[in-house]
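Notes from hallway chat w/ T.B., transcribed later so I don't forget. T.B. wanted the structure written out for a chain they're using in a teaching module, and asked if we could keep both sequence and structure tokens in one place. Agreed to drop them here.
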Amino acid sequence: MSNEEIVLCGASAYNKKYYLNENFTGLPDTIKDELRIMCVLFTEDVGGILQLVFNEDGELEFRTSCDENDLLYDEIGSVLKIKQYQNTKRELLESVETYYRIMFLGEGFDEEE
């Protein structure tokens, strides 16, 4: 596998759209729905753009950005919201990381035993 980052999903407050990487359509619908709700609510609350990205180690990272002239973007709120999601959605995020590691990085369960 190459050392590039893979976008799982994202949402934008600017065009009111949600994106799920087509490589992850195999995720259970409940997980896809939870990811969509989480991303859309984030952009509704703080504005800007949110992306969930797998780094080269298979860890899921939150990436936020905003247009240069966006005075409504809540930078402090974005940091707080990410910390909230990392705590309240820990199980969801860990299960998506596990899915990614098994399906895309070829890691097996025997490494943890």
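Follow-up for T.B.: The first helix runs from residue 29 to 46. Might be a good example for the class.
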